[in-house]
Amino acid sequence: MMTVFSSRRQRQLRLMSGAIAILLTGTIVFVWVWLNTSFPANSTLDTILCQHLPLTDRQVAVRRNLPASFVPELRAALGLSNAEICLLPDHKLTQAVYKTDHPKPDSPGEAVTFRRLQLQDENGFVPPDGLAQAGEHVRQMRIGDGADPDSGGISRGSWTWLGPGNIGGRVRSIVISPSNSALMWAGSVSGGIWRSTNGGVLWGPVDDFMANLAVSTLVMSPSNSSIMYAGTGEGFYNADRIQGAGVFKSTDGGTIWSQLGSTTSADWYYVNRLAFAPNGNILVAATSSGLWRSTDGGATWSRRTTTRALDVNFNPADNSKAIASGSEGSAWYSNDGGVNWTAATGIPVLDWLGRVEVAYAPNNPALVYASVNRNSGEIWSSTNGGQTYALVNTGNSYLGGQGWYDNIVWVDPTNANTLIVGGIDLWRSTNGGSSLTKISQWWSAPSSAHADHHAIVESPGFNGGTNKIVFFGNDGGVYRADNVYTVLGTTGWQELNNNLGITQFYGAAGNPTSGVIVGGTQDNGTLRFNGNTETWSTMYGGDGGFSAADPSDPNYFYGEYVYAWVHRSSDAGSTSEYISGIYWDGSQWTCLSAPYRIDDACNRTANFIAPFILDPNTPNRLLVGGRSLWRSNDPKTANTGTTGPSWASIKAPISGDYNISAIAVAPGNSDIVWVGHNNGNVYKTANGTAASPTWTQVDTNAPGLPNRYVMRITIDRNSANTVYVTFGGFSPDNVWRTTDAGSSWSDRTGSGSSGLPDAPVRSLVIHPSNSNWLYVGAEVSVFVSENAGVNWTVPHEGPANVSVDELFWMNTALVAATHGRGLYRAETVGQACYDFDHNGQVDALDITAVASRWRNAALYNPTYDVAAPFGVIDIIDIVTVSAHWGLSC
């Protein structure tokens, strides 16, 4: 029967149909415009459309202003889907594109060149026991200094840790007590061993002065939980890896650690993994020199293979069976408790990037899984205990382009078909690896797990039912999933970096008025500190480097990405933008036209972490070192599409194209500029503000400076002729001084137990009010001299036996930026005694009070800005004025 509508109803239906047609047409037009317009992904609508539209490579490329060829490259290199590329925040997309456009070096030698330059001597030699000997020297200095040395104004209790406690750093190992799941240990690759007694709610360092803090692997004896071992040295080819000092042992549950004398040779530089047989009687070490076996608790070892090994595991149910793996597609198995090893078959021979990680299925040990760095990540399996392997999964790109660096596989102890593989992100399989689901988003950390995964460990009580807790160690510290079966994206993750102070800083700087500090870190960006150890924030992502703070304007900070890609913040460190001329033109990274560019940044002809400084006499001059020395006299000029701060080369490259590694400007005289190079050459100029300064080489003057990496140059604020130069290398002469502007030199490293250890000296600063008080940051902690370097002491309770890459002043407080333990601060002069007007604050009014007391207020500049850094009234000015009138603390 046909329904007949009234004419009125028919008109209503026609209107409704027209409205629907208009709505559909409008929606189609809107989606078309959205797909063909480039905008940042920053709205809820973007999230919906990116996740639910079947986006093609071309549509993603147009949407994110990328060349179409970059979309598949991003998928392969970083394991990203089209939806994720569509959703990436702009600054994360910038980092992703850079890493894809500039892949890791094509040989391991190139990858470690930068850090090694700072460690080697004139002949390229790094002594195998250099770090251990330096650590022992520090221990002897502490004994000689007595219980409570007070040197340079630093005494017991002076040091305060500033964090960050919420950022973390690279963790390659996690151990949990089998009898108490709240008791955990984490091994940091440069910050040592950390312990938590409440399941990661709060962490604390175990042994600040352990001889080596580069911990890559931790194991606990299955037969005695009081016995633990730590393997040191990170043998995975990353550029910032730290050489180890063998294996350390604890017999008191991880409180006190001692180096095993059997592991002090060069064969034990890099201990990548340790494994116990189930009965606790056999310990095997996978090292860069091969597989080693001990049956007497590490007292002695026998070398079982000579091929570089990265992973080793024992069959959880059989003491005689074990598996191991390395690079180049290597995998082995043993049927006699690790005495003899046989090469497995199936996995093809690969190049040095072809790292393999292996894991038993605990409830079915005949089943072994391997994560292989081939085709950006492949899963292989063995059904005969690791003797032969067959390909299970390829094409998901779960390792991205760096499976040689981050690669881990975990198998559910209750279900052999459930496994997790980790690379840049984490992926879960419930069918034996046949298919994978991504369960983390590195770019959403800490709401999701941080990037670059190295360790996966289940809770000791894991049963797949009432306990489904799993912990993850990555470049951002430690994370937890309470339900490993349902954790996904940004749901179900818990960051556990509570007081886990293992962030690796390359440099830092602070504003003395606001107290805000920014610092460049390894893989965790340029970070911002506002006074709270647990609320550090990010100024700029990726890798960080040197930093600078405008002393007169708390809104301006400067940082860098790698290779002199300098960036600037004008909002007190909340955000930052490049000012080195680098920009994305829609198809590639390119540079603005001269003079709005640093050529060495564009060409990457600068150190991986390139030096740059603000002129201490004016915040409107920035100097950057590459092959040439670059200067900007307008670093605050706003960026446009074609312009920005202007740059000029004021020192040409030297013969051999050795990069500039250190820069200094004399406080009070901007014409005096010094630079040092990677090969030890040192130059100075007396007309540094000229368009073309004249440079003079001074390192060859008697008796001649070392031909090693120049780490730092420091000019005395009270005498521009007095200059200190520090060097890299485990050598006995790493601090030099001139008092005649470089005409002659004297070694100020000291000697014997009152001298500095033979280790790189990365930073040197002079006390603002006493030129005889020197402070150096070395490869192993901070040292102080009260007599201009004749003798040295080591302040107690300061930064641990860790590399101190930067020292700087916040008024008279000394701040140490460490490569593995975050930032520390020590007040060297009690500021309270300078509160001359008794108003409870040390400020410019105290200068007025001092000057008025002596009825000579007119003698000084009306602003009382009498000492560098100029542009701000700070305690250095107060100290200077007070000293003039004979007043001091």
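the 2nd protein, sequnce then structure:
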Amino acid sequence: MIKRTLSNGVKVLKVSTWLSAIFSVLLILIVGFFVVFPSFLKAPIESELSEITGLEVQLSAVSFELDWDGVTLNVDELTFNDQISKQNLAKIQDLHWRIKLSSLLEDEYRPDQVYIDTLVLNANQKSDSTSFSLDELKGLLSLKTLEIASFFESLSINKTLIQGEQTIEIAPLSIDRNDDQLLMRVSNQLINDQKFDLMITLSAEQLDHDGFLTLPIVLSNDEILLSSNLMIYRQNDDDYVEFSGFIEQIKATRLDEYLPAMLIGESTNQWMKRGFKSGLLQDIKLNVVKNISQDLPIKINLVAHLTDSELVFNSDWQALQNLDANISTNGKSINVLVNSTTLYDLPLKQITLAIPDMSQAQLDVSMVGKINTDSEALTAFLANAPSGSTVKDVVKQFTLKGPLTGDLDLIIPLDSRASTLDIDLSIKDNQLTTLDGAVVVENYNSTIAFHDNNITTSGVGLIRNMPFDIHINPNNRHDDKEASFAVELINNDSNFELYLTRRLDESWRARVESETLKTNIEIGLSEGLPSVRILGLQATTFDSIKGDLNIEPNDFPSMYLSAHGVFIDEQIIPNFSAKLESKDNILKISDLTLEGIGVGEQDLHFNGAWVAGKTGLIAKANGDALSEFLEKINYKEKVNGGKFDIDIRLFCDCAPWNMNIKEISGIAKMNIKQGVFTNQDPNIGRVLSLLNIKSAAKRLKLDVKDLTDKGFTYDNINAQITLQDSVAKINSFKLSSSSSDITLTGQSNISNQVYDIEAKVIPAFGDAVPAVTYLAGGGLIGLGVWLVDESVFEGKLIDKIVDQVVEFKYKIIGPWDDPTIENISSIL
């Protein structure tokens, strides 16, 4: 394309040589007219013009007009043909030559005005050579040509047609003489769909200065003013044409229209067309150099300043906003030195943009430079830019607040290929938040690297004022192939380590290790609350799970929590589950159930809350068989039957996970009906058997059907027990049966599993005389008392005395599995 354009340009320049000859013909024509006049003949003029120009010149329809001001020569058509090939070289249509009468008195008959309606130049003529030398060009623009052209006061050409492979039409052209200068003007010339006014100045001083030919050219319209110079010179035996221009300001969106593809190349022109969306280009300097002695590419250099511009690379990326930069191009490469701009609201300064080679089939924009901004802007940039789904997923997992600095290297293809982003950052005194705010790191200092669509960090920070080494996507976990995101927290003071990963199936896994605790955690995400499972927790003591972190309810996300396989201080903790809801610094605990603890097939549900540093839990249970309830909680009591109703309320000035028998306080109320404590029981049943109630009943001849060989049958039990400092205090305990009432007072240390209880047994006596005799001391006195009571008081006196006096007391102390029961009754 460029070669063909240059070839046509050479032909046009040759045509320009004929223009010089045409001017000469016009001069000869007027002189000849007045020399031969009035015996002027058409044929002699054609013959003389042909001889002078070396061309075959033909005139048609020659006429004259005479008025008071002067005379006008009119020629309908003037043609110039090659004498050998007869090929038409040029044609003038509708020529009007005006001469003032006053000039007829001068030695030279200088025309006042020359008007040509249409000038046709044929650029298709055959030539022995398409080369064009500086000497020929100098000949065209020589003083001789200037002298010939300055013969006219003014020359106007309404339309000029240059016919070749394509026909070029030149808008109305005028040449006016001003002393030693000729001013050529072209009005409303259509160039690349734009209309321009063109003015060229030709003067004797500019024709040849230090071996340079210089032509000042001004190109303008309502939007643009191009001041330029066309220089022609020789250097190292080669001839050059150089064009230098300056434009003060144009709209960036119009740049591609003012710099056509034939000048700066198709790729560069198209990039400018789709790249600039707004803004201004200022102080534009354009330089074009062509070696006309050799078939070499045109050298182009364009520099300009962009202000308040919008520059886009491809449809996937947002445009650079508020761009202030210096742009330069040589037609092959484009370089932009950014003073300031924003990309996805990320402020950028001193950034270099470059397209190294516009001739490549696949074009890339390289963005390289320094970053000095805040962490929020960078994470927003990574989240919004088309940097890949992996990056977006990682950025969603954490937030950063604070200053950062670093290096940016971004490759943006101008087609559908994926971008390449490399970032190396250094952050200081930032705040890092992850796990939806569950982990907050203060004074976070770290390096952050983003390469191959993967983010890695290595730094230190404070979590609850405790120092941690913090690594995101650490490189030391090469065996974890199923993780798309990972966080590693290490506290060297306590040898605590947490490794948290996000799996490819969108779930989370965590591994916690310290000197006293180990566990695995699984976190499943769904549309509702996340599900958190604690698996295989092993702790040396209950104190080891307390930790030193100052955690509050607000720090907990709402979740479904469950634990399986928990082993603490050589004790197996029942599997449990609960729903936790965090709001307004209150953690609501709902449906806390312990596996195997319940009524029948129903689990026992605790509900409560953690607020203001205190935890409270409430559970109620009722059923038809106490035996099943005790069996489900793995209690060793051997009972049969027993309809029961239990209300348990527990409190602790601690977090829920710190609740233990030493920390909690509470109250339990129970009512149990119609059951049997068996003799096989190692605790309460054994105590009841050791109370020796059966022996006392035998001695007193009492009817105690509830004491059987299989255990102790009761009708009802009402009890209230309070718990404080690991001690269960019996506020009230009354067991009723058909033969006796048993009350318990005292307490039991649950931590040490030790009794300190006093039992009182009150038998329900009947009408047996041995019992009254026993009470009265025996013999006839006792019999007399009995007879008097029966005859006088109808037995009411003895019954009243028995109810108030006859009771058996026992002291129960020692360990639960082998208590000592001492009879402290005065009656036995």
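The CA atoms of residues 507 and 524 lie 5 Å apart. The chain has a mean pLDDT of 76.
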